[in-house]
């Protein structure tokens, strides 16, 4: 998220030993039943996630929504792998190609406190779906050690309610994408069946877990949900239908973040209709529709956001402990 405007540390020496779901993995709607504890597990799982968590980048991100980034930036932790295969993914180096480093639960706790020491306004897990079960004990331990900043869960929303409920009481803010209203677009561009069917239920579950938004005195969201939507070329009508559902279902109890940063990168060239930048007119049509149906709580992007300059460099910064 870049250039948005409104539409209307504590140390401890305890060690964490991660215990997570054993046996075949069915954490997400893919239900691929892969045994990720075996050497071939990450090859057989459709997300390619293995036994251990992998992280590609840890940094302060200044360009999230203002109530997430605040003055000092969100403490982003970019997890490797993904259960979608979006042909236009700007983070394909880590989502599809798997760039990243293995970490254990104790290291994840350390990372969270290191982010707080850097001034992070929140801890933001980016694309954590494939490791949702492995996040439970690190988050519990971080809370026990005195973690006070909000925890943000930033995902593609292709999730199962039962997996999300593993995080009850541990996540403060949900930041899901809602990519498509038409399930056929999910199959075409992200390679998944029934995207909206699953994502809409996941978002309803997230809302049930957090409720209406709450902010602290600095304007940082400490509880609630922001739903992001990236407008695609030629698909502004689908975006409007998606807005109708979101606003009709949640009204002003959530924030909606409309993004214009689409770039025809990676494998977008395989689809001529989206192998071009989004036009200003297409984005304005979606913004006008949001206004027409009464969306007041949300964000829009301004300026030239469709630039590779805004894509993070996934160089492993701050992932490993000093000396590793």
Automatic annotation (TrEMBL):
<keyword id="KW-0408">Iron</keyword>
<dbReference type="InterPro" id="IPR058240">
    <property type="entry name" value="rSAM_sf"/>
</dbReference>
<dbReference type="InterPro" id="IPR007197">
    <property type="entry name" value="rSAM"/>
</dbReference>
<keyword id="KW-0949">S-adenosyl-L-methionine</keyword>
<dbReference type="InterPro" id="IPR040085">
    <property type="entry name" value="MJ0674-like"/>
</dbReference>
<keyword id="KW-0479">Metal-binding</keyword>
<dbReference type="InterPro" id="IPR013785">
    <property type="entry name" value="Aldolase_TIM"/>
</dbReference>
<keyword id="KW-0411">Iron-sulfur</keyword>
<feature type="domain" description="Radical SAM core">
    <location>
        <begin position="77"/>
        <end position="205"/>
    </location>
</feature>
<protein>
    <submittedName>
        <fullName>Radical SAM protein</fullName>
    </submittedName>
</protein>
<dbReference type="Pfam" id="PF04055">
    <property type="entry name" value="Radical_SAM"/>
</dbReference>
<dbReference type="InterPro" id="IPR016431">
    <property type="entry name" value="Pyrv-formate_lyase-activ_prd"/>
</dbReference>
